[in-house]
Amino acid sequence: MEPVDLLVLATLIFVAAALYSSVGHGGASGYLAAMGLLGVAPAVMKPTALILNLLVASLAALQFGRAKAFSWSTFWPFAAGSIPMAYLGGLLDVPPSAYKVLVGLVLLYAAYRLWRRPTMAEKVVRKPPLLLALLAGAGIGFLSGLIGVGGGIFLSPLLLFAGWADPKTTAGVSAAFILVNSAAGLLGHTSGVMAIPPEGVWFVLAAVAGGALGSRWGSRRFGHARMRRLLAVVLVIAGGKMLVA
Predict the structure, then answer these.
(1) Neighbours of 123 (CB within 10 A)
(2) Cα(60)–Cα(40) distance, integer angstroms
(3) What is this structure's pTM?
(4) Which residues cross the membrane (predicted)?
(5) Which DSSP string corresponds to the chain?
(6) How far apart are alpha carbons 217 and 211 in whole angstroms?
């Protein structure tokens, strides 16, 4: 990769990590979009995105956990359903083109609802039904492992729209969910890690720096209204990426 392309890609990764981590996300869809824009080989994109996602989600989970924005009772059913399915999805190499278009449209609609109705997430928080949480986690996990993301872009709007978490707890739960999902997906795609080029270390440094900055600001400085608006922006980016991929 040419030095200019390397600098541009590292900068895009930094920006994506800062933006996504501010709402508890790892940023995989942003990394995939950036790498696709710069012409990175498909065989490199998936494992690279999962590794960066793992690092940034770790930082986000730590920061939101310190800010007491996490609920174990909300997290574990989704994680229990997602982990084995994320591993299974990581084993497969099938481009789910039609489904990605549908998911992209859903994410854009979710972003619209969050932006236009800022009070919708202020409803009384209730515990998610166990079976529904397990099934939703399984579906999100499989899709996440298949395309190389952590699943936060799907879990966050679900938690908010269903009234299962407030915005900050949603961010904390999503960060932990992305962490375990990325690890499971990467475990299922270990062969792809060998394809990552040496300059990948610069991507790691950029992602860690952006993730540290974004997660700190998101966990300590942003109120619920701003968190919803930020999440809406993230969903637009992720949804747009799904549609044009």
Answers:
(1) 13
(2) 26
(3) 0.78
(4) 31-62, 74-92, 98-115, 131-164, 200-219
(5) --HHHHHHHHHHHHHHHHHHHTTT---HHHHHHHHHHTT--HHHHHHHHHHHHHHHHHHHHHHHHHTT---HHHHHHHHHHHHHHHHHHHH-----HHHHHHHHHHHHHHHHHHHH-TTGGGSPP-PPPHHHHHHHHHHHHHHHHHHT--SHHHHHHHHHHHTSS-HHHHHHHHHHHHHHHHHHHHHHTHHHHTT--TTHHHHHHHHHHHHHHHHHHHHHT--HHHHHHHHHHHHHHHHHHHHH-
(6) 10
The 10s digit of each residue's pLDDT in 145-172 is: 877 778 888 898 899 888 899 888 998 9
What is the model's pLDDT at position 48? 85
- The Cα–Cα gap between 162 and 41 comes to 38
CB 89 within 8 A of CB 189: no
CA distance 49 to 241: 14
Token pair belonging to 48 = 């690279």
For the cut 50, the answer to whether the pLDDT of residue 90 exceeds it is: yes
For residues 211 and 28, is the Cβ–Cβ distance under 8 A?
A: no
Question: Is pLDDT above 50 for 240?
Answer: yes
Q: Are 64 and 168 in contact (CB under 8 A)?
A: yes
User: How far is the CA of 104 from the CAs of 129, 140, 178, in angstroms?
Assistant: 26, 14, 19
